[in-house]
């Protein structure tokens, strides 16, 4: 069986197009284009890392462990966002661990604020779900966000993900305060049911 982390970029058919976006595996050469918006305070407020130094950002972006999970989104030939599809194993008991290997993914995304408000993030995450369930054959996807990041959790609900937990003061923000967080998920069977409706 192919290692789960190598499956994303080895899928045939890259780049892939949605109605308004082209998605493709990220390359080291995308660092500067994504830096243009990732350095903005409105882009970094809720994401894992804030960047104020291009060389540090470039080193992180081009790390092979990060590139293997990352896709970029283009609109009209311009990079407008990125997404992460982190493939992994579901929690299981030891005796059945082989059946849980490579069956789920954690999703993440970031969009240039200049491209916001047009439904592009929803279009991209809908694509990610199809990629995970139809192309990669996963059984479950999940994502987390700060509870105060309303655009993110509303997007997850728009694409059919369900809130599985409310983590009370469960996430430490870079401002030094513990904030509530939400965890969302979707199963392949639930996603398929919405595709046939």
Automatic annotation (TrEMBL):
Transmembrane segments: none annotated. Residues 21-189 form the N-acetyltransferase domain. Gene3D superfamilies: 3.40.630.30. InterPro entries: Acyl_CoA_acyltransferase, GNAT_dom, N-acetyltransferase. It comes from the Bacteria. Pfam families: Acetyltransf_3 (PF13302). This is RimJ/RimL family protein N-acetyltransferase.
């Amino acid at each position: 069986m192919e290692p789960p982390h190598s499956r994303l970029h080895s899928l045939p058919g890259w780049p892939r197009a949605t109605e308004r976006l082209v998605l493709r595996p990220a390359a080291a050469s995308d660092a500067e284009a994504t830096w243009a918006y990732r350095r903005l305070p409105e882009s970094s407020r809720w994401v894992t890392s804030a960047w104020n130094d291009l060389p540090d950002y470039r080193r992180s972006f081009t790390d092979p462990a990060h590139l293997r999970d990352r896709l970029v989104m283009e609109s009209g030939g311009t990079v407008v966002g990125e997404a992460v599809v982190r493939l992994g194993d579901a929690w299981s008991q030891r005796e059945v661990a082989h059946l849980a290997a490579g069956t789920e993914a954690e999703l993440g995304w970031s969009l240039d604020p200049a491209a916001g408000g047009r439904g592009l993030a929803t279009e991209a995450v809908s694509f990610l779900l199809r990629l995970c369930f139809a192309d990669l054959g996963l059984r479950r996807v999940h994502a987390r966000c700060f509870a105060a990041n309303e655009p993110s959790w509303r997007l997850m609900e728009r694409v059919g993900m369900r809130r599985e937990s409310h983590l009370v003061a469960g996430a430490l923000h870079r401002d030094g305060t513990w904030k509530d967080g939400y965890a969302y998920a979707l199963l392949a069977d639930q996603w398929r049911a919405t595709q046939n409706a």
